Amino acid sequence: MPGKRITDLQVIKYKALRGEHSQEAAAAKTGISVASARRVEAATVLPSQRPPRHWRTRADPLAAVWDTEVVPMLQGAPSLMAVTLREPAIIQSILAGQQPKCMSLLWFQRNPLPTDWVAQREVVAGFDS
After folding, report:
1. What pLDDT digit, counting tens, does each position of 66-120 carry?
2. Which of 26, 70, 96, 104 is deepest in the core (most CB within 10 A)?
């Protein structure tokens, strides 16, 4: 299942079943994909014994403005939350489920909206065309 980590128990069970069954059958009985089964066979240690990842998987989209714009705003008004930096009509459309289809969490992570509400409206208006 995508998004779920493979446990040590699944790896041990897979390796035990692999002696009797094909890769596909052992993976199915263990509850992992065939691609994951290939990774399990290539791995030398159990998942719990792997060192934690220390690198970022994608660049931080707010890195350029975090210290100069966002932090001062949040410190100046402690009641602000990150979502309150969005233009109110954008927030209302998201809460009502009426935002443009391409505006998803992934989109927000990769495309930070400007802090100016007028500029935010212009970005969102571009989706409708």
Report:
1. 888 778 887 888 777 666 677 878 888 887 888 888 888 788 778 777 878 888 8
2. 26
The identity of residue 8, as a single letter, is: D
Q: How many CB atoms lie within 10 A of CB 26?
A: 22
Count of beta carbons in the 10 Å neighbourhood of residue 84:
12
- Residue identified by tokens 């954008």 is 90
3-state secondary structure 58-116: CCCCCHHHHHHHHHHHHHHCCCCCHHHHCCHHHHHHHHCCCCCCCCCHHHHHHCCCCCC
What's the token pair of residue 96? 């009502």
Q: What does DSSP assign to residue 2?
A: T
- What is the pLDDT of the chain when averaged over all its residues? 84
What is the rounded distance in angstroms from the CA atom of residue 63 to the CA atom of residue 10? 38
Rounded to a whole number of angstroms, the distance between the first and last alpha carbons of the chain is 37
Domain boundaries, the chain: 8-49, 63-128
State pTM to two decimals. 0.46
